[in-house]
Amino acid sequence: ALIEAAKRAACRQAVAENFQPTFKYVGIGSGSTVAYVVEAIAEKGKSVTSTMKFIPTGSGSTNLIRDAGLTVLQVPDLLAEVGFTPGASKQHIDIYFDGADEVDSELNCIKGGGACLFQEKVVSRLSKKFICVADSRKKADALLTKWAYVPVEVAPAAAELVRQTLVDLGSREPVVRIAGPTYTYAITDNHNYIIDAPFPPLLLNAQADRIDPALGRWTPDALAAKIRAVLGVLEVGIFSGMTGPQAAAEGPAAEGVKP
Ligand code: DER
Questions:
Q1: What EC number(s) is this enzyme filed under (predicted)?
Q2: E strands of 123-222, at which residues?
Q3: Is 119 a pocket residue for ligand 1 (Cβ < 6 Å)?
Q4: Among residues 136, 92, 103, 104, which one has the least CA distance to residue 4?
């Protein structure tokens, strides 16, 4: 109950400090923490929210938005609505709220515990700012010190090939995620599998000079790039700090709310 109260308080603070009534598009992530963000936004009432559209990151997020009486707008419909100008910024979403499984001191995140990492990455890419709300259990000096594995979304036909290649990259015992209660492979909103790949604790991006693949020592950016290049991988549950040069490529400047 203490953790739930902390999650709720952090979400209410995140909304109080970052949510503006002038927003047009608001990204909403997946999981139990971000539910308190939606609760806090819905409390502002229809006079504020009726002119806004909320961009989900999967079926759970869509239901969360809809159940709160807020307007859902899927990414394809957002892109149709705003129009396309070659070379123009695609960061149409004013702000994106989401949780994480683990956050390091550079605000790099492990995400994907809820199997929504692909659409979460898409919405993050389309957002001006990403507010990650995470309670103290998620706070770590470096990634994979509290959370054990990197979630990876893969094409079912290539799952075993990817699993073996992740072992070659230094992952101990990567497994294809099973979904209860049917005990079959979990299927994502994009009809793919998730492989949970344990790796030794990661470095920080600032420690790129200490990368040592032989010892399985990677920075978040380097490991994400390595895994993303594996044939059969759709996306990787490592969200880099998104500050500095890759901000343009990776999306918004991440601003974590104090865990
Ligand atoms: O899958 C994700 O990345 C989610 O944000 C998620 O794992 C966080 O879930 P929680 O808010 O229920 O801890």
A1: 5.3.1.6
A2: 129-132, 149-154, 175-176, 178-179, 184-185, 193-198
A3: no
A4: 136
In this predicted structure, what is the pLDDT of residue 253? 42
Q: How confident is the model at residue 183, as a pLDDT?
A: 87
Nearest in space to 28 (alpha carbons), one of 95, 100, 110: 95
Q: Which pLDDT value is given to residue 204? A: 97
Q: What gap in Å lies between CA 249 and CA 259, rounded to an integer?
A: 26
189: tokens are 């909103």
What are the backbone dihedrals phi and psi of residue 216, each rounded to the nearest 5 degrees, phi first?
Answer: 70, 25
What phi-psi label fits residue 170: left (phi over 0), alpha (psi between -120 and 50 degrees) or beta? left
So what's the pLDDT on residue 181?
83
Instruction: Give the number of other Cβ atoms within 10 Å of residue 73's Cβ.
Output: 20
Q: What is the CA radius of gyration of the chain?
A: 18
Cis amide bond preceding 174, omega within 30: no
The pLDDT value given to residue 244:
34
Using an 8 Å Cβ cutoff, are 115 and 188 in contact?
yes
The best mutation among 32, 137, 177, 190 to test binding of ligand 1, ranked by most ligand atoms within 8 Å of the C-beta, falls on: 32
Q: Which residues of the chain have pLDDT under 70?
A: 241-259
Atom of ligand 1 nearest to the CA of 34: 11
* Beta strands 149-154; 193-198: pairing state: antiparallel
Instruction: Report the distance separating Cα 48 and Cα 26, nearest Å.
Output: 13
Residue closest via CA to ligand 1's atom 9 equals 31
